[in-house]
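Q: Convert this sequence to structure tokens.
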Amino acid sequence: MRAEQSRAEQSRAEQSRAEQSRAEQSRARLSWLDVLKGIGIILVAIGHIYSNQTVFNWLYSFHMPLFFLAAGWVYKEKTVLTDIKRRIQTIVIPYFSFGFLVLIYWQLIERRFRDSDMSFIDSLFGLFSGCYDNLDFNIHLWFLPCFFVTVVLFNIIVNLGGRRTAYLVSALMSLVYIVIPMHGLLWGIDRVFKYIGFYAVGVFIAGKRVKAVKKKVEAGIVAIVLLALSFFLSCYHLTMGIMWFVTALIGVAAVILISQLINENRILQYFGRISLIILCIHGPVYRIVVKIVSILLHVGTDAVREKFLLAIVVVAITMAICSTAYEVVVRAAPWMVGKKKVKGN
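A:
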């Protein structure tokens, strides 16, 4: 009797240790993924603020694929309706919430100072259609409808035919993007063909349970080499056709290695967790900051954006303002950022 009780206690202890180990691995896994998204959203801000064509071309060769691959890495199969409901809460509601706010601000204030002849009705159509060409008031919003369609479509395919079918369809869609020009489809469907392959790669790699890097020196060297290679490829405009995927994956792989080397950084992890909200509002924020800095320094806005150090200062201020805005919104109207209000608040 005592022997059986002892074995039962030992079994429970082993199970508890196993669960604790899995929890620790999950936290470690999410920490570097948040770092990855944090680095990614900073690169997005730099690409939008710093006016340097070489840097722009380089960052744009991989920084958006990075987010699709990161999202794929944490993919979990759900029933179609459950997934759509969750995606509406976390993607569509923030898209329309911040989209309407920025559109009103644009129409009442910023439009007067910008070179745009797009009417309010055209902009409103852009918000509802998700068409890139009609999002002058906040062009960066294109990502959200495209991302929504991508993740929902992938999960639907998995439900219908399994992951292998989803990988195959994603590869075929990527091939279609290479050979058939598409432009301006509703809700960024044309861009889904461009990015779903990266989402599928993230799902596939995560399924292989790739271990975090342990040999830090070697990993650091590889990351530097990959960054240099992606920079070289972008400088020579090797970012079209099949090379779009090659160059992008090289850049993303480099940032993944860097993120795993960092693993935990509170600031980067925080930016990663609120990256979607930063994407929604950083456009009008940085334009205001650039204008204020230019007035204080008695220079033009172009001069602020062309100087690297000044551009980085603008990036830092923009990230701080976006973070503050998030903290206000998550307390006052959590539904706007895809969260439910905590009971008792």
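Residues 75-212 form one domain.
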